[in-house]
């Protein structure tokens, strides 16, 4: 039993270090790359953790404008959004998205996920904010805060974490809301009007000098599921 847990953890770790975008401190990705990366990670999350109703995010101009306002540490949850201030701006996107997935895995494995989500539902849940399944829109802007670059992202329309707490493991994309479309494991909201649509042809795109296709992801997922 111990060796199975160890092997599964190692495979999750391998998935966490694989990214479809090359991002280093000297290479600044833009908002379009960031949106693709977030959705690629959300798709990976849905497939690995078997979440049946993880939604694809669309870029939303209104939420982008909200993100440009003054950051208030006492108001991280609004009337129709949740927000996250991530250190490092777009440059560090690979790292804080990876950390969000890693933290979810650690808390879920230790049976501490629901306790954590209940405690911080009215605040923020660190980088796991990017993986709240029923969020459908996102808007971000760069911030200079405490003498460092940060990225302020606002995600909506949900304010609660029910979709992250109350779900049973099922095939990704099999529980999309009526009228919405499944695109390779993610649900696409029929009411979306944002930018950055995913064509559903897989998880491969290029930025800088690194590419990752869907084949490696599926091999890792198969091993994680059946080991």
UniProtKB/TrEMBL annotation:
Superkingdom as given in the UniProt entry: Eukaryota
Leader peptide range in chain numbering: 1-23
Keyword Signal belongs to the record: yes
Record keywords, A-Z: Signal
Protein name: SCP domain-containing protein
Species this protein is from: Caenorhabditis brenneri (Nematode worm)
